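JOB MANIFEST
job_type = single_chain_structure
chain_count = 1
residues = 208
[input]
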Amino acid sequence: MEHNPSALDSRLQEVGALAGRRLVWLSPLFEDAYAEYGDTDFLNRIGQGHLALALKGFWPQRGPQWDALASDGDERVFLFEAKAHAAEMASTCQAGSSSRQKIIAACNETKHVVGAGPHTDWLDGYYQYANRIAHLYFLRKHQVEAWLVFLYFLGDKDMSGPDSEAGWGPHIEAAHRHLGLKSQVQWVASLFQPTADLQGADSVRPTI
């Protein structure tokens, strides 16, 4: 987003998420020390701070920390979860009992809306994937035009990650199967970004 801020624009336009506009990146940014945001801070960053109380009723503190946040310069916002290798897909809820009950209630509400099986396990196995979808639902429930983008990097040699969309396929399918999700969840986009394409720059890093 710093060196090639338009790298994802065409892909998001192709899936109908970006309607002829360009992404305006909100985080992480150089001038903000590359901070990543969660909870009320993430709402403030996307211009939805008025939903802070509602979010506290929906989800306990220390919810998702978003890898990146963006907007289309208007009303649409984008929540990014990025993966470089398959092991990052697995996660389990570590919340205490009271927080866990709130999470279960939020997940059950989300399952109903997205058509997932009511008895599927959203807390163990692919919890991170599930809680991102729950937060997308929360925003949509409050009339925020939000999209959730799972960004899968291709060819990350440092992490020995998959080098093709087909390489990611079985891992994504396993997550969907475990969570009881349809192959395509509304307002969720999966993008595959070759790391080799990010070598160039159409913006210049500021100097300190």
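[summary]
Residues 201-208 have pLDDT under 50 and may be disordered.
The CA atoms of residues 113 and 137 lie 8 Å apart.
exit_status = 0
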